[in-house]
DNA sequence: TGTAATGTTCAATAGTTCTTGAACCAATTG
DNA sequence: CAATTGGTTCAAGAACTATTGAACATTACA
């Protein structure tokens, strides 16, 4: 594993690439979970998303999320800690991230936002 | 040409499909132009977008925009008039459409939002 | 040093999307 | 009825995307 991977600068973040990233259900679920985590101002590592797919598939989606500027990865020992690039995104596209996340929250039942173990079938 | 094409009901509009539609530069440009047209409360027909691509390619993108619920098509004689499904989208995903359109407007220079004849190189 | 834990990278494959041109359909106009 | 206008549909090809498993790299720890 190389060092901290490359991230685009704020001004390099492009709207079509961001929308392209958010369109995928797995990536939307990742972003959603990162947004939930923002409330307690801490980060999540790759393993926290294991409910969403296999390791290599998740690594693929993490890379896309990094490359489009949606999230940031920090290497710490054998872990990678991730968080949303909230400030950069709000500066580039005001209101977009919040609108997507709140829309996703409203449709949480339809979307597969949570890993299986967290899904509660509100019967 | 058959009659008025099918449109999904409001509750059938899905977030990933909407984001999937908006991610494509041609479709984003179509939506952007429709949003501009909203101000004068009128519609646009297919030919108004000829600067964005060939007829059959545009028809393909129009179909995607209809199927995901972003726009509505009204058949009138030999024309098809289109408009954004603003009310339905605002009800389903509050703030999303506005955030996308205003973000696109800010990046109008980078994105190919306007047909060639309309592009002004602000030198 | 050896082994386990955590993720990434690579190669292969299946599936999807975009684009183009030709053919087609419906409504209008002469 | 024939021609034109405005737009859709179909088929085919190129390009891209997601997914999987195997191999690999780095850190931690006994």
TrEMBL record, chains A, B:
This is Transcriptional regulator. It comes from the Bacteria. GO terms for molecular function: DNA binding; DNA-binding transcription factor activity. The keyword Transcription applies. Keywords: DNA-binding, Transcription, Transcription regulation. Gene3D superfamilies: Winged helix-like DNA-binding domain superfamily/Winged helix DNA-binding domain. SUPFAM superfamilies: Winged helix' DNA-binding domain. SMART domains: HTH_ARSR (SM00418). The lineage of its organism: Bacteria, Pseudomonadati, Pseudomonadota, Alphaproteobacteria, Hyphomicrobiales. Residues 17-98 form the HTH arsR-type domain.
């Amino acid at each position: 594993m190389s060092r901290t991977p490359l991230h685009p600068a704020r001004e390099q973040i492009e709207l079509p690439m961001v929308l392209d990233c958010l369109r995928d259900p797995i990536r939307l679920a990742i972003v959603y979970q990162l947004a939930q985590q923002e409330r307690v101002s801490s980060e999540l590592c790759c393993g926290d998303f294991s409910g969403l797919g296999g390791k290599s598939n998740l690594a693929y989606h993490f890379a896309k999320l990094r490359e489009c500027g949606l999230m940031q990865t920090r290497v710490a020992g054998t872990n990678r800690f991730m968080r949303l690039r909230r400030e950069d995104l709000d500066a580039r596209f005001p209101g977009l991230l919040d609108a997507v996340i709140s829309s996703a929250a409203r449709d949480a039942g339809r979307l597969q936002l949570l890993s299986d173990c967290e899904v509660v079938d509100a019967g």
